[in-house]
Amino acid sequence: MITFNYEFLLKQLAIISASETSSLNNSLEFRPSDVVIDSRKVTKGSLFIALKGDNFDGHDFIQDAFSKGASLVIMNDNNKDQVLNKLEPYSSEYVNVITVLDTKIALGQVAALVRKLSSAKVVALTGSSGKTSVKEMTYSILSQMGRVIATQGNFNNEIGVPLTLLQLTGQEDYAVIELGANHIGEIAYTASMSAPQSVLINSISAAHLEGFGSLLGVAHAKSEIFTFTPLLETSALKFIKTPKAFNNKNVALMMNADILLETSMLHDDSQSISAVWADEINLFWQQALENHKNVSYFSSKSTSVLVGSQRLSIDFTITNLVLKGNGSCFTLNTPKGSIEITLGLLGKHAISNALGAAALALSVGASLDAIKFGLESVKPVSGRLNPILLAKIGDHEQWLIDDSYNANVGSMKAAIETLSELSGYKIFVVGDMAELGDYSQVCHKTVGQFASHANIDAVYSVGEQSHYISNQHKNGRHFSSKTELINTLKNDLKTHSSSTFVVKGSRSASMEEIVKALKEK
Q1: Is 69 annotated as contributing to ligand binding?
Q2: Which of 201, 158, 181 minimizes the C-alpha distance to 435?
Q3: What GO biological process terms does the UniProt entry carry, in alphabetical order (predicted)?
């Protein structure tokens, strides 16, 4: 981690957190070796930030942190007296305490400070689906150009993003930060601490509607990635409560034009959950994009897009597309020239993700050679359309496509579209989509209608809401338990020597249990 002294940190925290020092042994030149939120990971010289969650309170472990060598603790002010009374045994050591109103915000502020001290080119990306795939592709490309850090796992929220930024050591050339959200203001906050030079919006879909309220709310939330206020220039406490963003015209925006193309066609789909908000979404994007001049568009479907009254050329496109059983080949066209790509990932949406990654990487100086090598080096991510060969019977193959990591309306449709292009007896195995609130039923029905018109042989469902998907298909079947569903799939494998199953559902549906059982058959 990039180091900084105690005095500098205290001044930065005081600007936004009304912090104060309660030091038993004040060392203004103190430099923490690292920043941790888990007392089990504390080593000598660590800065320990005591976070409070639903099921834990880091303040209960402050004494443990000091006993392991922590030299600085940041804690909430209302825990001050109780904690300090326990710290007398450590008064002979370099023990410093900073009290703040909210340690979660202090974590973000420390991360913003580390980001400010870094010379790395930072890119950030968001979207209802495809974020992790684009992140992995961008990381692969930029790794050809220099040293890179990137978001690991699902560390894309108000806690994960600062922990990612705290990995910056000062030696990196690039940082690739994935920004997720389930409520308005979250991306504004995480973007503000990341302070990216270039950003990307990959997709807008009916996801986390409990937190966003509508598809228009999703659009507003994703747009925060290019309308953020740098965290070191604002009051984070006020910012969290009322995220009033401004338009940061210095940020280069990579926009998936397919979002605008799909929105413009919503009126033709009266059955779509999205059609309800079509006019509002169109107007929102028109205003947002017309006010932000530094925009590049990418699309796997078109070469131009209408933004307000202007028809604009799309900067990143594909031609000469050939779909294969294990991926695709295509020409990727950019403002810097064209390159031939062989992509080892399933689905047309993977091609769109590749376009986005190329655009984002090119915006911070990646070469065409780096883009080609980076994209062609990417392997499927576990739980995201990851193909698994279950059996080979003569010339016939049985495939399991593991897409169990998460689900929303857009990614469900992408999985169905991918399955329809594959061979053999095709079954879509689906669990519930979560966090859709009052729109849950209509969202599941929307996916079911899409599946009913796709080139797939059957739809199997399990869960409380997913029967709205299987009920729409002529060969749909709902199961009361995963055990029953797994046994039926195993019988299908005996019946159909050539077959392909796609397994998908939200995180809470735990559809990976089905994947595991089929792999162990």
Answers
A1: no
A2: 181
A3: cell division; cell wall organization; peptidoglycan biosynthetic process; regulation of cell shape
